Every structure is written in C-alpha cells, then in structure tokens.
Amino acid sequence: MKILVTGFDPFGGENINPSIEAVKKLPENIAGAEIIKLEVPTVIGKSIEKIKEKLEEVHPDVVLSIGQAGGRTDIGVERIGINCDDCKIKDNEGNQPIDEKIITDGPAAYFSTLPIKAIVKNIKAGGVPASVSNTAGTFICNHVLYGVLHLQASKYKEMRAGFIHIPFLPEQVVEKKNMPSMTIETIVKGLTLAIEAIVNNDTDIKITGGTTH
User: Fold this and answer.
1) Which of 187, 143, 150 is nearest to 165 (CA)?
2) 59 labelled catalytic
3) Identified catalytic residue from 21, 78, 84, 87
C-alpha cells in the first residue's frame, strides 16, 4: 500500500506550519504501508494541482492531507469537505475568494472516504487527544479536502482520501494567550496511529462521533 501524506507551507503570518513539519518526521513505512510525503502551497487552485501531479506520478492507494488548525485542542479527523471557498484571510499569493465554488459543476459536499471513527479510536487508544470534526472550514484545508475527494470521485475511484487538522505547536503560541498547542512529537505519534488505522480498516467502525451542536 502507498499512502501520500501532504502538509502545507506556513501561512497567515506564521513562520512555521506544524502540518508539514509533522509530515517530514513520519516514518517511511507505517504498518507495512509506504509513506510518500509532499509539501503543498497554501494557495487556491495550486494546492490541488500540486497533489494532482503527485497522484499521476505515484498512484497512491490513499491520500491523507494534514493542516494546521490554530485554536483546536486535539487532532481533528474531518468528516466532510464542502464546495465553497470563503476565505477569511488571503492565501499565500494574495487570493481571497468569497462564496465561490471549488468545482463549478461539483456536488455540494463530499464525505471523507477514510475510516474516520476508527482513526479517532486508534489515536485515543494511543494516549493522544482526538475527535471527529464536522467542519474543515472554508479556507485552503477545506479546498484541498474537497478537491482531492473530487479527484477521487471523478478519476481515482479506487483511492481513498481524507483530511486531519492538528493544533499549533508550543512555539507558535508563546505570544498567543490561552491558546492550546501540541508538541511535534505528540502530533507525529497521533498521525502515525491514524495511518495505522487507515491501513487496518477498509471500512469504518460504527461508534458515536457526533456532536449536539
């Protein structure tokens, strides 16, 4: 099995992005799966194109994209990507689409095709905080989640894909009062556990992961 794991470059005034830093530190092989790593630009359109180029090169069985979610307290395994770019801030090339479709003729949303609840269960069993997330936002993370799932649905039908959000690193919150963070070692452990669950679960398990609001 080949798993393409992507992370973003820094954005929003940060000089580091924990997503790509964690991806770089992942083992080359996890649970028998070959791990292929890719840095993606935090840019509308170009982010998806970079992943598309890699798909055509390596033909992975799974694409797992990782993104920074400052303010979150745990590792969030995303359930759904929506067909909407509504960027609160500019991307790294100054683009700021508002209420625009990612794919003009695409459906309103795609669900992750990864075993999200099995992933959460395995991460938590390893002593790392995790939960199912029901929104990936409307910035580049959601853009990539939806875009890759659209590529899967339209061209790479045997592939599975999904997205995980991770908190800030401790060094990012030194001047951010009351902002949660997670060490790079804990993030890497959590992502490794997530990938183990992906390898070991062709379908998801049926346990609660919902919220009341």
Assistant:
1) 187
2) no
3) 78
